[in-house]
Amino acid sequence: MSAAPAPRRSPVGAHQPSAPLALLAHPSAELYGSDRVLLESISALREDGFRVVVVLPSDGPLTAAALERGASVIVTPSLVLRKSLLRPRGLLRLLTAGPVLVLRHRALLRRLRPEVVVVNTVTVPGWLIASRLASIPAVCHVHEAERSASSLVRRGLNAPLVLARRVIANSVFSRDTLLDATPRLAARSVVVYNGVEGPRTATAPRSALDTAPLRLAFLGRISERKGAAVAVESLIELRRHGVDARLTLIGDVFPGYEWFRDRLRQRIAESGVGDHVVEAGFVDPVWPLLDDADIVLIPSVADEPFGNTAVEAVLAARPTVVSDTSGLREAGAVFDSVVSVPPGDARALAEAVVRIVEDWPAARERARRSAVDAAERYGVPRYRERFAAEVRAAVPDLAHPRAASDHGRNASPTTT
To answer: Does pTM top 0.90 for this prediction?
Structure first.
């Protein structure tokens, strides 16, 4: 067995040998929803007095971001559960590579001896198994809610969570979906809403829509389940009815799903709206593009555990149209700047856009108010406090040291 990789040390903050160590295992190195929440989890634990080591399966944008938050980073292979593993070849890999990787995880845990392991998402269950083998308390942070999956798949996916002392779900929908498949987790499961970092100052929507075109933005993965095709169809519908609108697609495809982007481009070209669609790709920070938008579309067609992108749109003070489903409903329904439509219904999406345009002065004011409300409800400080408390609850005998640093605190956004 090869030697365990050495961590890349952060230049930020002190790594006191006496401070407790938390190891955070995560399935990707990108900067989308759960990746960004991981960054706030790092800051939460750092502020609560922990040293933090993040383990990633590959290098990527998240690596540098984690280092900036004061964590050390280890890049080492992990078995990440994907739909491809349900095919015969994938199941073979799961059965052969899985045990080897679990033993490597255990060796790393025995070398580092963290006080607690936080497994971020249910897609890297090997870390829960390794934590039990190494006799280290584990917490699982659940970002998934696949209620449409079969009960057998959901029970299998959630089975490793019985090895966790604490399960943190990012929404009531996520928790209820989890408990529907695995009721025995009820006593150890809690809900902590994601902390979503907004802009330092949200730019108010333009005062009047007197200059064409109407600027729409789709925010999220360019994928079928996120509703990118629905957003395009709504643009086609709007233009068919004489609305001069433009759509900016903010996001990129998941590796291996380039076929969907190609199919979407073909539909855009065939429908004649190619000159009115902009592919911005993945953009960080996203705020300048949201500042440029009039209305944001979040038209997911599948279950969403939590509406991170919807909250980002609200924090940016933009009227937002979301699918009336699952965690999107839970995250957005409390804001009067959010309009809900049936999932997959491009006509309803277009009609919602028209209603917002026809009531623009009031919609603009609702967006300004909701940005302030969202900063309070889903603010980063509240999340950090709650998350750190739940992690510490998994190791109740651990002494509570003084906070390691104030690095990374975020100001609540205001509107101008």
So the answer is: no
CA distance 284 to 113: 34
pLDDT of residue 289: 98
Class of the domain covering 201-377: alpha beta
CA distance 159 to 146: 14
CA distance 332 to 43: 25
- Domain boundaries along the sequence of the chain: 21-195+379-401+410-415, 201-377
CATH homologous superfamily of 21-195+379-401+410-415: Glycogen Phosphorylase B; (3.40.50.2000)
Which residues of the chain are modeled with pLDDT < 50?
1-2, 12-14, 402-416
What is the pLDDT at residue 156?
Answer: 81
| b/e code 323-341 from CB counts within 10 Å (16+ = b) | bebbbbbbbbeebebbbbb
Quick check: helix, strand or coil at residue 316? coil
| DSSP class of 340 | E
